[in-house]
Amino acid sequence: MGTTSSNEEKTIAAVKNSGFNLHKVSEEMRSSEKVVLAAVQNHGHSLKYASEEMRSNENVVMAAVKQNGFSLVHASEEMKSNENIVMAAVQLNGRSLMHASEEMKSNENVVMTAVQQNGRSLEYASEEMKSNENVVMAAVQENENSLKYASEKMKTKVNAVIMEFECDAKVAALALVQSRIVQLSAKYVSEDGRGEPGIVVTCTNLGGDVVANVILKPDCNSHDLRQRISEMLVVPHPVLRLLLPSGEQLGGHTQKPLRELFMMT
Question: Is 262 exposed, middle or buried (0-12, 13-18, 19+ CB in 10 A)?
Fold first, then answer.
């Protein structure tokens, strides 16, 4: 950036006091990297008064968005397509995604960072990202009201889980992208630990490892079973994909007795 003239020094002192003083200085000073950098470090939105050259200067724009993510609005089109710049902006305020280029609004890393900071920033993502299960799940986890900005396809999927399991949007979105498959098998046992006959349901993962054994009374139903497995594995019950020995998936509304469910005589 070279040496600093006395005029620059005075101007730097002025913009350090208030970045918005930049609009009062000469065109020459608005093109000085030292001056503009001092201004945007005081207030990012003072980038608005910088020269076109400075609004395309990566060092200056980076300092501006790190001070205020929304100052991205004043950056050049080139900077609005710069992943490092946009990432810094959305890390500070996810909704600054509204000022990013269309390319950045389709960048999964950028959009994911934005929605994790503020779920409602999903509103400004591309249609492709609004249909991305991981992105929508992250947005809903941060703010469940952000579901309204998802694609119709994603809203239908999430709402179907909500209806089936009577859960909230956060759990439903989680169930779509982090479901846990559990295979079930059952047999009678002489007692359930309280001196009564019972049914033991063995739960295994896809690798065949036993993850839980659940003992229930014979008159219990599939809802009781799902609830117990959920408690033992410490996961919300909509996340569980329970597979019966027949290969059929146990639905959330199923209320069959265990004997019938496992076709036990």
Answer: buried
Q: Please, are residues 107 and 97 in contact by the beta-carbon 8 Å criterion?
A: no
| Structural domain boundaries enclosing 225 | 179-261
Burial class (CB in 10 A: 0-12, 13-18, 19+), 106: middle
Rounded CA separation 55/43 (Å): 14
Q: Would you state the pLDDT for residue 195?
A: 60
Taking the C-alpha atoms of residue 207 and residue 78, their distance in angstroms, rounded to an integer, is 49
Number of domains in the chain: 1
Closest alpha carbon to 113 in 139, 149, 140, 79: 139
Structure-block tokens of residue 217: 């009374």
Q: Is position 215 within any domain?
A: yes
Tell me, yes or no, whether 167 lies in a domain: no
Residue 58 lies in a domain: no
Integer Rg of the chain from CA:
28
CA distance 229 to 10: 70
pTM of the model: 0.80
pLDDT digits 0-9 by tens, 54-90: 999 999 999 999 999 999 999 999 999 999 999 999 9
